[in-house]
Amino acid sequence: MQAQGKCPDCNGIGANPLIMHEFAYIDRYDCPGCNGSGLFSDWAKVNGRHS
Ligand SMILES: [Zn+2]
């Protein structure tokens, strides 16, 4: 994923679908790995590595 510049946690989407179990609708949340940017550079910062 690094070569493509995309966050490996969300594949560069920046958010993932989340099913709210009690309300039966689909919500989205910002990817915790890249803070929703979808960028590998942000993911590397959040995860404390730059390699
Ligand atoms: Zn991400």
UniProtKB/TrEMBL annotation:
Lineage: superkingdom: Bacteria
InterPro entries referenced in this protein's UniProt entry, alphabetically: HSP_DnaJ_Cys-rich_dom_sf (IPR036410)
SUPFAM superfamilies associated with the record: DnaJ/Hsp40 cysteine-rich domain
Protein name: Methionine aminopeptidase
